[in-house]
From TrEMBL:
Belongs to the CAP family. The keyword Signal applies. Residues 303-312 have a biased composition (Low complexity). This is C-CAP/cofactor C-like domain-containing protein. Gene3D superfamilies: 2.160.20.70, Adenylate cyclase-associated CAP, N-terminal domain. Keywords: Signal. InterPro entries: Adenylate_cyclase-assoc_CAP, Adenylate_cyclase-assoc_CAP_C, C-CAP_CF_C-like, CAP/MinC_C, CAP_C_sf, CAP_N, CAP_N_sf, CARP_motif. One of its GO terms (molecular function) is adenylate cyclase binding. It holds the Pfam family CAP_C. One of its GO terms (cellular component) is cytoplasm. Residues 1-22 form the signal peptide.
């Protein structure tokens, strides 16, 4: 069967009969049709599995939240966030992988999830429910998995990291309510189940990143039909235009009703009238007329082949690393919780927005205030004054210099963190952190203690006379069973 052309569309007649495309006429352009994807044949296995996962793992968590008066409408917001991710999974099952960066291609469709996450984060709950809200905020951060793919980050391990951050807070809830309130324990269990099952789902259907349909159309075209199915306006392309293709004049009016059935009827009718093929009269497209081939000619000239990239350019492309995905840099004081929040900052953003030297300075004027750092990298923070507590979560290459802490300094899910205590800090809590160094003052030397878990490369530096001495914090232990009790000792490596 020869290849034929109708305007801008190049298809074979047999292939056209089998294509599941919907051709919708626009109101103001009778000779154009909008190209979209048909939703016939049911949803993809990845979508069906996601629906099952939400029903079995997320809905029970939402119902538990609804039973807890202090969490207001957190359950509804959770379902909205997961529903927004579902729409993207449906979209990817019908569309081919985009040529532009994944985050850029999916940004127009993240609105529902982003709105739900923002509302969840901005809930003004009573202080007794602060840990619950932090647990949920850390949990919904896992939904960013749809934007990750190798070599940047595998989505399933990212979700497991989010589970660790959420459990940092939920384990405190579990400790406070163990044996007292089963609903609170169910909340912690459901959070863990929702993220654990999400990681399993991703491992099966999106192990190397969000899966796309290699036979699908573009994301923008697939979104048009998806929006029609839910009764909403079609999202526009980044330039505000809708994807359209011109209809050949010989087929005008044939696709009545805006569907492919009308077009097929006209083609079959043409064949029945004179006994010839419906493709009769359509010229053959040769190789030099097919724009995607190297033989393509334009205005009688052979298109020049692109020059091979230089060796230096190839090396630069290989060595260039993509910047990690970060949210909007935040440095603000929140009245609720008396908390200073520093999020998504680097030295570059700090130099651009806050200070010339890239150092963020926090002025404490109330001992009740707390300081919270999240998702920061290559950053130095100075905290002046006496304050309640310090929490550093999911940060890398961050140095914090502070005066006196009343409660504790907590470091979780971090890499290469350095703390300098000019006054006193009673407790340091280090969890799932690789690379931790703290400089103690003389005042803090006698009162500071360390609680560590699943961490490595930890060291403490302290004054020893006129010198500064540094020792490792043990991470290897010897356990023995004596008289029915497990007794632990620090390994001889540290003696």
């Amino acid at each position: 069967m020869p290849t034929t052309t109708w305007g801008l569309a190049v298809v074979s007649f047999d292939a056209l009969l089998e294509r599941s495309l919907t051709l919708c006429c626009t109101d103001n352009t009778p000779n154009t049709v909008t190209l979209a994807v048909s939703g016939h044949g049911g949803e993809a296995p990845a979508v069906k599995a996601y629906d099952t996962y939400v029903k079995e793992s997320v809905v029970p968590l939402a119902q538990t939240c609804d039973r807890m008066d202090g969490l207001e409408n957190s359950g509804t917001l959770l379902l909205d966030a997961w529903e927004g991710v579902r729409s993207i999974i449906v979209l990817s099952s019908r569309a081919k992988a985009p040529s532009e960066p994944l985050a850029e291609a999916l940004t127009p469709f993240l609105g529902k999830t982003q709105e739900a996450v923002k509302k969840l984060r901005d809930l003004r709950l009573k202080r007794d429910w602060d840990r619950h809200q932090k647990t949920l905020v850390e949990m919904v951060a896992a939904l960013s998995w749809i934007l990750f793919k190798p070599p940047q980050q595998l989505p399933a391990p990212f979700v497991k990291e989010a589970l660790g951050s959420a459990e940092f807070w939920s384990n405190r809830i579990r400790k406070d309510f163990k044996g007292k309130d089963e609903t609170q324990i169910a909340f912690c269990d459901n959070v863990k189940k929702a993220l654990t099952d999400l990681a399993k789902y991703i491992e099966e259907y999106h192990k190397a990143g969000l899966s796309f349909n290699p036979r699908g159309v573009s994301i923008a075209e697939a979104a048009i039909v998806l929006s029609d199915e839910v009764g909403k306006d079609a999202p526009s392309l980044p330039d505000g235009k809708s994807p359209v293709v011109k209809r050949h004049p010989t087929l005008k009016g044939g696709a009545s009703g805006g569907n492919v059935g009308g077009l097929m009827s006209e083609l079959v009718g043409r064949k029945n009238q004179d006994g010839s093929s419906a493709a009769t009269g359509l010229r053959k497209v040769t190789k030099d007329q097919q724009t995607w081939r190297k033989e393509y000619k334009k205005d009688g000239q052979t298109a020049a082949l692109p020059a091979a990239p230089s060796l230096d350019a190839a090396k630069k492309k290989e060595t260039k690393k993509k910047a990690p995905l970060r949210g909007l840099p935040i440095f603000e004081y929140q009245d609720r919780g008396f908390k200073w929040v520093i999020e998504n900052h680097t030295k570059e953003t700090a130099m651009k927005e806050l200070s010339k030297d890239g150092i963020i300075t926090v002025e404490i004027n109330d001992p009740k205030q707390q300081v919270y750092l999240y998702n920061c990298e290559d950053l130095t923070v100075k905290i002046k004054g006496k304050f309640k507590s310090l929490a550093i979560d999911n940060c890398a290459k961050v140095a914090v210099v502070f005066d006196t802490l009343i409660s504790s300094a907590e470091v979780v899910n971090c890499k290469k963190i350095q703390l300098q205590v000019n006054g006193i800090c009673p407790v340091f809590t280090v969890d799932k952190t690789h690379g931790f160094l703290v400089w103690l003052s003389k005042e803090s030397l006698a009162v500071s203690s360390f609680a560590t878990a699943q961490s490595s490369e930890m060291n403490v530096s302290f004054p020893d006379g006129d010198d500064q001495k540094e020792l490792p914090i043990p991470e290897q232990f010897v356990h023995r069973l004596q008289d029915g009790v497990v007794k632990s000792e620090v390994s001889d490596l540290y003696h």
